[in-house]
Amino acid sequence: MGLSFILPAIINPLLGSHANPMMIVGFLCVYVAFYSCTWAPLTWVLVGEIFPLSIRGRASGLASSFNWIGSFAVGLLFPIMTASMPQEVVFAIFGIICFLGVVFIRFCVPETKGRTLEEIEIQGATHSNTTPVTH
Prior knowledge:
The structure is a single chain. This protein has 135 residues and is an all-alpha fold. The chain is built from 6 helices and no strands. The mean pLDDT is 85.
């Protein structure tokens, strides 16, 4: 997904006026296809698994609200960004956000495959008790 944003940001300036505008459409189709098969369904699975049972309902509702607010913000900001800065910069920004998302998931979100909700909750409680709080 990140590459589907970064590549047009690199290719478009290199080709200049020879760049086919349909290239952007193609890369956006690749982005949507990969998003639909990866992040989109996993977001909802993660929201249902990651919170302790005592707060799962409220926390899932809050997480879902922030997910929709984020989607609204992207839809609202994208036209404003493309009107105020070069298209390549906008695509590069969204590509970098995708790569930062991968780093966040890799280092901050626990693996839940093949584990019960109770095991995930115990790991979360253990991790939060052993992680030092820095101020």
